[in-house]
Write a structure and sequence with these properties.
The chain is mainly α. It contains eight helices and no strands.
Length: about 200
């Protein structure tokens, strides 16, 4: 009776499947070097057929032989026709990327919006400042609708605009906000985030 996959050896390269991994293990046990070399070439040809979509890449064959070495834990004793990347280098994990931590006053507006409002507050051209103020206000209202709909209020946007720009940008009383853009995917994400927070 065959064993469950969970009871078998871990697949080193799942894209080739267990059959290739078993063949490599069998090849490692062949005592005759010439026969072992032929067997390795046969396995690589099977791997090539399995990765046919990448066959046009210039380094295709080089990768296949390196994958063969990796599947064998770098213990398959043959004459490789290409340079094999050393095990330590091939198995090394890339350094983790640092996540840019930004201090944000109100998360529903986001860092880019706060950056834009800072630019608005420092803008000396009055016409440009007025235009940017209107654009920023509409985006702030949209963000409120998407991420914090319960507190979505045009008066909140007006007050936040004054706070962020230190009173240098104020919406006219007759300012007409643009219609809300319905984005169901963002609203769904916001709802899921709220559920996780409350659970």
């Amino acid at each position: 009776m065959p064993a469950y996959n969970s009871q078998q050896d871990t697949l080193l390269m799942p894209e080739y499947g267990r059959m290739v991994q078993d063949m490599v293990r069998e090849a490692m046990e062949i005592p005759d070097r010439k026969l072992r070399q032929q067997c390795a070439g046969y396995i690589v040809s099977i791997m090539a057929r399995m990765q046919d979509a990448n066959s046009e890449r210039p380094d295709f064959e080089h990768k296949l032989w390196n994958h063969l070495a990796r599947i064998s834990h770098y213990r398959l004793d043959i004459d490789y026709p290409v340079d094999i990347v050393p095990e330590q280098e091939a198995m090394a994990h890339p350094a983790p990327m640092t996540y840019p931590m930004k201090s944000i006053r109100r998360r529903h507006y986001g860092y880019l919006m706060e950056k834009m409002l800072k630019y608005v507050s420092e803008c000396e051209d009055e016409a440009e400042r007025e235009e940017l103020t209107g654009l920023a206000a509409n985006q702030m209202r949209q963000n409120l609708y998407t991420w914090n709909r319960d507190s979505m209020d045009e008066e909140v946007v007006r007050q936040d605009m004054l706070v962020y720009t230190k009173g240098k940008a104020e919406l006219p009383k007759d300012f007409s906000f643009a219609p809300i853009v319905q984005d169901d995917s963002q609203v769904k994400m916001a709802k899921n985030r709220k559920k996780k927070k409350n659970s």
